[in-house]
Amino acid sequence: MDSATLLLVLTLVVGLYVAWNIGANDVSNAMGTSVGSGAVSLRQAIIIAAILEFCGAFFFGSHVSDTIQKGIVNPDLFIQDPMIFVYGMISSLIAAGIWLQLATYFGWPVSTTHSIVGAVVGFGAAIGGIEAVYWNKVFHIIMSWIISPLMGGAIAFFIFTILRKKIFYSSNPLHAAQTLMPLLVFVLITTLTMALLTKGLKNLYLELSFFQTLTLSALVGLFGGLIIKFIIRNIQPSHAPTMERSFIDDKTITALEKAKKHLQRAQAFAQGDLSFKVSLALEEVESISQDALQTAKAASRTSEYRAVEKIFGYLQIITACFMAFAHGANDVANAIGPLSASIAVLKTGIISVKTTAPTWILALGGGGIILGLATWGWRVIETIGRKITELTPSRGFAAEFGATTTVVIASALGLPISTTHTLVGAVFGVGMARGIGTLNLVTIRDIISSWLFTLPAGACIAIIVFHLLRLIFS
Amino acid sequence: MLNILKLFGQSPFAPLQSHMDQVSECVVLLRNLFDALLQQNFDEVQKLSEQISKMEHAADLIKNNIRNHLPKRLFLSIDRSALLEMLSLQDSIADTAEDIGVLATIKHLEFHPSFEKDFHPFLEKNIETLQRVRNIIHEIDELIESSFGGIEAEKVRTMVDEVAYLEHQGDIIQRRLIKNFFNDENPMSYSTFHLWQRIFEAISAIGNLSEKLAFRVRMTLEL
Hints:
Distance between the termini of chain B: 40 Å
Helix content of chain B: over 70%
Oligomer: heterodimer
Largest interface: A-B, 58 and 32 residues
Number of strands of chain A: 1
Order of helices and strands of chain B: HHEHHHHH
Shape of chain A: elongated
Number of domains of chain B: 1
Shape of chain B: elongated
Number of strands of chain B: 1
CATH superfamily of chain B: Phosphate transport system protein phou homolog 2, domain 2
Radius of gyration of chain A: 29 Å
């Protein structure tokens, strides 16, 4: 086997390994929240993730891939010796794989995206010189890593504040939810379809004007809204008595009202001492009936919130689907970007300026993600789902909406961001709006420190591996 | 690969509610204790007093557990100081109940006709105040779900007003009780007088602390 084929096989294997890692670890962070809130079961989550991650990777993944393969490093500077470029891309993949393995072993919170970008930048700067790297683009990418959790948080905060004011604070939460939900679904589906279509259609060789995209998205949104309206129309609060409070019958309340009326009549006709005694009895009955009404209202309110959460469960399923799609789109590039760049060079022997990731490579990436999900990812989803109970469907929906919108916009702009960090930011956004009982601020420190450590670490390992490869294969 | 599990911290609200339950049990035992005192069953009084002490200690263990697991890095939906203050008030109620138990065992006390009639309503009113506040603490689950606002918060506000009213009624009974107690013709020994006085003060402290606790919860609401 000649060295070119060996390199090709090595590239494919490492690319597949990175894709597997994404499926095994990253997906669980996205889908675990939906399982934890009870909106989807584990099995449903795996099926949704498997189908939609692949679709996202396949139909929408190329833009971020472009950035990683030639948006960061200028391939032209390697025209003299294209093999250096190939070694560089492969060593980036291997560096990311090694760093991920180390991080899993030691339990560090490391992002796949950051590892790959760090490795590619490191290789470019060290080997090709400072001019090899598009520092402008790198700056944009680093900015997007900082902005994406903040933006996810801001959107989630905004959405949850609206939910709070319109639904949870209203005098009839269930009715408010049933009225507001179709509108929310409409906005949700329209925005996300809009973002997807504006950039995703290139893969399907369709060209639509802005106005056509808008109309199409609005139609899809309208369709979704109507379906939801139909589904939730008939949800009623269940009348199951709660254990703590005593079950107050409607009959009891009406009987007390009747007693009050009788006593009032008696008071009108009684005189003197009797009238005084009757008014005392009337006061007593009034306070008892007041108490009973409060207790009855309390019992119904508990089940109303539960019914509201049930409605949000449907909404969370929709956001979970979009989340899986957006995650596949954004993260498959981590494996595919360097992979397709090196394969293009290995096959043609030259670095061409305009290679987009070939379809079969995108499919390979998507397949790797599904493989990771099926072998290891499902277990992580289950663990996360069992242990997260604070994220009820309404909170989960708000957080996922914020995160998904941010990830989709980033994918459309070709910026590789960390889905997990964005989701963490979104959850904090909901927490700021007093939606969640307790949050651990240590995760913020972890995220910031991972920004600082992963870039240099990925770069160093990539440079070492590059020299090793050049030694072995030249 | 950030495992999203690290994001959620250990919630202190459930332990807070179980602490309140433990405190409530301490206070409710006072009913049995004074019933036994009425029947001059001093062995039973001693036994119940020791039981209250044991329960107060169990509540302290829960309290310390909560305080040990409330690091600065935990971001809560209510103020940390509000939570700690509620815990502190609940702890004071348990301590007061224990004090009453101890006071009742220092001497073989007797009920005096001057206050015998008013004592039972006085004790009952304060215990009722405490139990209402216990219901408020148990509403915290629902408050978190409704984000501390809306009709749930209105309901809790009504409950707080009720607690304040009960405490006021307790004050009225206490005034009557104290008047009769001090204006009594038949003298009792100084130590008996002093002990009963301390017991009355401690019982009314339970009502006062319950009202303070209710208002502390009121201050966390978005109203």
